[in-house]
Design goal:
2 copies of one chain form a homodimer. By secondary structure, chain A is of the alpha+beta class. In chain A, 29% of the residues lie in helices and 24% in strands. The first copy, chain A, folds into 4 domains: 109 residues, Nucleic acid-binding proteins (OB fold (Dihydrolipoamide Acetyltransferase, E2P)), CATH 2.40.50.140; 253 residues, Bira Bifunctional Protein, Domain 2 (BirA Bifunctional Protein, domain 2, 2-Layer Sandwich); 125 residues, GAD-like domain (Gyrase A, domain 2, 2-Layer Sandwich); 86 residues, no CATH class. Chain A is built from 18 helices and 23 strands. Chain A is globular, with a radius of gyration of 31 Å.
């Protein structure tokens, strides 16, 4: 029987120092690196706070010595003993407690550990699936624990910060209304109302707008959100969002509060002073210069438009591109000419193909306005000279050119820019570049659905100047009749994103606060009156009872924590992540349930033969 | 078109005072009590922070005067103007801003409000269903807003408190494994794994135990939990739980940390100094004295055992009760003899019947060891004398007696005690009585299932002294063979509850941290090996890799917020509550979904004709 009652912890395994010499202490923890040496047993006892060396001798613990000799790694112990100096040669300066050790006088074994299923503390990498199955053991890795502690600090700083700024924390429902807003809902069948379903919220968007209508003025929540999407890349079916909404804000009010938060997070978590305000860049400029709406500004490369150099060109690729109202764009790379081997240039072409991009042409600039490369001979001296002028290129610089439809060229060079950043090691991993992208288009054309859809979400307010035009339209097709030069994607909105090092960390907008405009937007998006009343009727009604102007933002907390922890994957900052098949390998969920449960819910399983795994 | 850009808020509606006289200010808010008086329009503009009187005059705003005359209540406005003194006779001392008013120079109407669907700020009660439908409007009630603000403060204090005490905030999954732990799970069909389901967690119990196995030492979370139960009384299908777990704790360690939290909450939220440590009372004593495991100690009445007075009685009811090993218990009521009319005594009998309780006998104590009441004549002088001695009763006191099986008598008098507390106004509503109930039984007999079930949950550790006995049993039935005097309900556990004013606010336990004991408990609860491995296999396996002793508690945050807000119902501290049918009347969820969605999930709807509402 354990008698740990007599052994009340006095210190953690991370805190004993020379000042504690001679103290009688009680420590709890896990045993690691158990060695028999000179007739004594040395054990490193570790806990979340650190590691302390224990020494067990037969003189001190008598008959229990044989037991302790044979304990297994990660056995849990309570020990009491005396803090003493280590012999000079045994001092470990790498270890905060490395100048002392505890001479154990008594101990209790709480639980013997079987041989661990994964190696811990040995720097041996573990397959993802094995890691996910054994998360509670994996979390004994110092770095994994530190990541969760960091995430906890992020939570606390955020809670405190918004509280100090008079925001009200409100919990919104998890059992919500199914109103697909783009992504697929997770559904929850109702037992009391068979045939009806709740949905897990994709975001608390409508709830937070309603809280503004309720007069709460400033709202925040750390909210669980859910999307039933195929988990390409680094996504989770449930994720954590910092959700903010304010009444009567300008975008700048939102930017200011969020910048203050990041300033504090970066300072308190990793000791970095961020300069505020962050850079603002409108969507158009970001697409123009970086071919993306989430530029990584650590990467110094920019895209420039060099069409002007080729207005009279006879080089057919460029000539055709311009004839079809396309563009010719360039990226200039300095100091890396030697990297542009035949093989590397081929890899760029392959890369472009893989993203269905436009062709990449590589030119090397030489002395005296000359250029070298497969197409050099097709270009006139004036063209090369003008190109050098437009790109401000010098001898030995590399120019990567691409011609074609503007959107394709931007996408291609945007992607090539990222590849170059990695391949040529142009990105300083220790830098943080935060910026706001503003004035997103209200609508974008969906290639998959062959129609105009909303870029942010349907509650986003257009910029004031477009409201009169929008109110006149019965459909987006009518736009070209009224303003032939304008595409729906030219209508700017009050939507904005925040980007850190090329990650879209969050996005928000000023919302529509008038029913007639909101209905018009639904109509222009092709929703029938019946459809939008069914989905958004409650919000539309409430807009008529004194809704204030309002707006906000939602930030991905998993990604923010991962960035601060310098981890590539959000899974490293989540305690129990799912795998790419949306399974928890630890407890094997999702799993089967009983027929009685399904019967109560009024549902039955169909066609589960073809996909079940 | 609005030009609110020029009107940037300088103050809230709650902050202007005499010190601000002469300032030009901009306020945002909702209009209420719009009066035309002496050729001017007076409007109270309110926001979450307070109310300020606005004065609109034709001199100042010119042609816009006619517009403002006709605005509707709860129209949203931005106004700019000059802070000035109110005339002496117009000063309103009830209103923090009551000595000033704002002479409006310009304004913008953000949104005209239609006539409100429910009365706000008028003290008119609203039917629950109507309130739930119009929550965002109802939340404009000052008290409703204050309740949410209070809840937000509770969150912040808790976050801060546990952070200061080195607890790590960890989010555990909402998409969890179906493992019914008593209540019914909400299920979420998996699209990727048709035929399989996630469950929404009833509590993060297993996750937090795994976090202790991971070495996190101290964990906390404000967690959403879910139970698909019929919503008797004041329950919600989703609720918020403060979830705590610690490694190597004694129950007193848990008590201490929670007491510190309550001390801070009560002090910072309602200015009350709680004395710590709170009272501890074991389960047995609570049942003995109060007939309940959640006694409201504001109520001064106690139950006492008076069986001893009637050991030789000839009064058949008492005699029979004692013969069948039952008891005779009493409650003494002082200073209220006049309330015990025939009619009131009848109402007590009716009450007892309604809870399937035992009979209530009322005696009035007179001078000289005499008693009055329908049974008085059946009792001997010695019996009455002994009864008076045992209850320490004086002349004019009332004794309520009940005889029968102990559990029924305790339940009856426990319930009668509550009724008396209310009826006789014995409970001081401004007092707070917090206490710990300890040493709950490990097992209780379920009358509905006709078998022994766990009292707390199956992970609860028995008290040390019972472990050897338990390990010897193959079933609970064997207990009577080994220890004939002992019932399974006599086995004490390391489970505890915290009770405030008769509400069970939370409960917890020290957990089992060894696989063999945990398997034994599952076995004694009647689970087959296959069954417990399927449900709890992951936890059982992990117990073998160095699980430390651990324990914790979960507290109902909705109830805590309601108590601090002095609200009877938790719905008053929830922004978007469901009704008793688990519906959100605001957005009409749960609701129907498309056949395509169901097909993707691999489910279909059956028998929805008989229950759908």
């Amino acid at each position: 029987m354990e008698n740990k009652n007599k052994l009340k912890r006095t210190h953690t395994c991370g805190e004993l120092r020379e000042k504690d010499l001679g103290k009688n202490v009680v420590l709890y923890g896990w045993a690691e690196s158990i060695r028999l040496h000179g007739g004594m047993v040395f054990v490193n006892l570790f806990d979340r706070y650190g590691t302390t060396q224990l020494v067990f001798s037969r003189e001190a613990i008598g008959s229990k010595f044989d037991e302790i000799k044979s304990i297994t790694p990660h056995t849990t112990l309570c020990v009491s003993g005396l803090v003493r100096n280590r012999p000079e040669e045994a001092i470990n300066k790498e270890m905060p407690t490395g100048s002392i050790e505890v001479d154990v006088e008594d101990y209790v074994i709480n639980n013997i550990a079987k041989p661990l299923p994964i190696p811990i503390g040995k720097g041996i990498p573990v397959y993802d699936d094995v890691k996910l199955k054994w998360m509670p053991i994996y979390l004994r890795e110092r770095k994994a624990q530190q990541n969760l502690i960091l995430r906890s600090k992020v939570f606390n700083i955020i809670m405190q910060y918004f509280h100090e700024h008079d925001f009200i924390y409100v919990e919104t429902p998890i059992l919500a209304k199914p109103t697909p807003e783009g992504a697929r809902d997770f559904l929850v069948p109702s037992r009391i109302h068979n045939g009806k379903f709740y949905a897990l919220p994709q975001s608390p968007q409508q709830y937070k707008q309603k809280l503004m209508i309720a007069g709460l003025d400033k709202y925040y929540q750390i909210a669980k959100c859910f999307r039933d999407e195929d988990l390409r890349a680094d996504r989770q079916p449930e994720f954590t969002q910092l959700d903010i909404e304010m009444s009567w804000p300008e975008p700048e009010d939102i930017f200011e509060i969020i910048e203050g938060m990041f300033k504090r997070l970066f300072k308190e978590i990793i000791g970095i002073d961020l300069k505020t305000p962050f850079r603002r860049m409108n969507y158009e400029e970001a697409m123009e210069l970086y071919g993306t709406d989430k530029p990584d500004l650590r990467n110094p490369l920019k895209i420039s438009d060099v069409s002007k150099a080729f207005e009279k060109t006879e080089f057919s690729i460029f000539k055709d591109a311009l004839k079809e109202k396309g563009v010719i764009n360039a990226i200039k790379v300095s100091n890396n000419a030697e990297r542009f081997t035949r093989k590397y240039i081929d890899s760029l072409a392959t890369h472009s193909k893989s993203i269905k991009g436009s062709g990449i042409i590589v030119l090397k600039i030489k002395e005296n306005n000359a250029a070298e490369g497969s197409i050099a001979k097709h270009l006139s001296e004036e063209e090369i000279s003008e190109l050098i002028k437009l790109t401000n290129a010098s001898s030995n610089d590399i120019l990567l050119l691409s011609a074609g439809k503007k959107s394709i060229v931007k996408k291609t060079l945007g992607s090539v820019r990222l590849k170059l950043g990695t391949d040529l090691n142009l990105v300083d991993k220790d830098r943080f570049e935060l910026l706001w992208i503003t004035e997103f288009p209200l609508f974008e054309f969906s290639e998959t659905e062959h129609r105009w859809v909303y870029e942010h979400h349907p509650f986003t307010s257009p910029e004031e100047e477009y409201m009169p035009i929008l109110m006149k339209l019965n459909s987006l097709d009518e736009l070209k009749e009224i303003l032939p030069e304008m595409l729906p994607s030219d209508i700017k909105s009050k939507a904005y994103d925040i980007v850190i090092n090329g990650w879209e960390i969050g996005g928000g907008s000023i919302r529509i606060h008038k029913r007639e405009l909101q209905e018009k937007i639904f109509e222009l998006l092709g929703l029938s009156r019946e459809e939008y009343l069914e989905k958004f009727g409650s919000l539309l009604e409430l807009l008529e009872y004194g809704a204030p102007p309002h707006g906000g933002i939602a930030l991905g907390l998993d990604r923010i924590a991962a960035i601060l922890a310098k981890e590539e994957s959000i899974r490293e900052v989540i305690a129990f992540p799912k795998n790419k098949e949306a399974q928890c390998l630890m407890d094997d969920s999702p799993s089967e349930v009983s027929q009685e449960q399904l019967k109560e819910l009024g549902i039955s399983i169909i066609n589960n033969q073809n996909k079940s795994k």
